Amino acid sequence: MKPTDTFLSILLFARVMAVIAGAIVLVPQDRTLAHDGASDNHQGAHSSAKPATADTEIVVQEGGHPILKGPQTHGQVLTLVAGEPIVLALRNEDHGPREFISPLFTKTEIHFLGRATGIFRKDAAGFRLNPGDTLTLQFTAPFSGFRRMYDLIWCGHDGKPGSELQELLIIMTEEKQPHAASETHGR
Amino acid sequence: MHSSLVPLMVLAMVLTGGSRGVFAQADEREYEPDVILVIKEKAFHMVKGNTSGQHSEHPAFSLSSGEEITLELRNEDTLPHEFVSPLFAKVEFQFWGRATMVYTYTANGLRIDPGETVGLRFDLPKDFSGELFKFWCNVHGKLHGDVLQGEIFVVKPKHG
């Protein structure tokens, strides 16, 4: 092999390595960046904060119907056990702001992670989410003194007058039965 | 041949430097707070904002009515603290970050864990001009003489 050929080979190798290095430097960072950017949008100064994994989700998709997802859901009913923690994600995939309001949110401490507008009413509280936003709630299902307690979640539009679309979801909070508890422990 | 390598190296350097630059931007805050309140040593400290009420023994700041306000709260103490105010029973506020909702008969707000930062954004109606709103930590600032209290004075905007 001539010295010129060796030199050319080295140059070619260097060029290939430079392109690969550039690609390695750029591609993963851009991916992370897109994620971090979105995360920053929702979490402000908490880009490093990770939300707890949601057990249950309420997703409002385009068209307005809220959908409950998760093992504790049955159609439009979410079943909770009093005294047990739950992680509930609210997701607005609609084109306009959507509200999630419930008396339940006034009965227990609601920890949240994300971005929303707080709604405080006399007998209910809730959140208004802008399109594309997700808010993760973490709370302990409250005791009511009854075997079963039913609460509603209003999944309405942004308080538009004349808007008839007020989708309702039901939260059923059950007191844990002693025998049910022992069954659970036995599993 | 040598000259063809230089642009590649320059390109690589520019691209690497460029990506660092974008990373730095991602770390930056996306909003500019009008007021920054830091909670530390069991007291509110105003880091940014228009100081008001010089005779007040607690931190006090003024906000202009008819404007959108962005307030940043940082808990640099070792305990969770609350920021509640009757103002937030009158106006809705948007929040972002990690916190706990605080809902009382007279005031609403948030509880912030140590090390957390939360942003609040709200509109102050024009007819609030001249009103004074207290704020306090609902755990450590409820009683007369408690330190974790402060005041928000709503003023008319200078340009209007």
Task: Describe this structure as you would to a colleague.
The complex is a heterodimer of chains A (187) and B (160). Chain A has 2 helices and 11 strands; from the N terminus they run αβββββββββββα. Chain A is of the alpha+beta class and 187 residues long. Chain A has 2 domains: 1-48; 56-183, Sandwich (Immunoglobulin-like). In chain A, the strands form 2 sheets. In chain A, strands 2-1-5-9-7-8-6 form a 7-stranded mixed β-sheet. A 4-stranded mixed β-sheet of chain A has the order 3-4-11-10, with no helix packed on it. Residues 18-49 and 181-187 of chain A have low confidence and may be disordered. Chain B is of the alpha+beta class and 160 residues long. Chain B contains 2 helices and 11 strands. Chain B has a 7-stranded mixed β-sheet with strand order 2-1-5-9-7-8-6. A 4-stranded mixed β-sheet of chain B has the order 3-4-11-10, with no helix packed on it. In chain B, a hairpin with a 4-residue loop joins strand 7 and strand 8. Chain B is globular and about 40 Å long. Mean pLDDT of chain B is 80; it is low at 9-27. Chains A and B meet through helix 1 and strand 7 of A and helix 1, strand 7 and strand 9 of B.
